[in-house]
Amino acid sequence: MFTQIDIERAKAKISIKGLAMAAGMKYDTLLSKLNGRTEFTRKEMLSVQAAFPEKVPLEELFAIDTGQKSA
Questions:
Q1: 63 Cβ contact list (under 8 Å, min separation 6)
Q2: CATH of the domain at 41
Q3: Does residue 67 carry a pLDDT above 90?
Q4: Which of 11, 25, 47, 61 could form an S-S bond across to 56 if both were Cys, CB 3.0 to 4.6 Å?
């Protein structure tokens, strides 16, 4: 759902579990938010952003992938 988070995780070689630990979140909570079952709070978004070595703007990091491709 959050493609850019997956891209940044791959670049930084961070697992979802590692991201959860770095962001100070429980693994299940982060997984639920990444899958779109629950929403991120602003504080959580900032924590996830801070977990990556490169600063990616929140708007880009949390852009929702709709799964539609442009023509």
A1: 2, 3, 4
A2: 1.10.260
A3: no
A4: 61
Q: In total, how many domains does the chain have?
A: 1
| DSSP string of 34-64, one letter each residue | HTTSSPPPHHHHHHHHHHSSS---HHHHT--
The average pLDDT across 17-34 equals 97
CB contact burial 37-48 (16+ within 10 A = b; e otherwise): eeebeeebbebb
- pLDDT (mean) for 24-52: 96
Does residue 60 form part of some domain? no
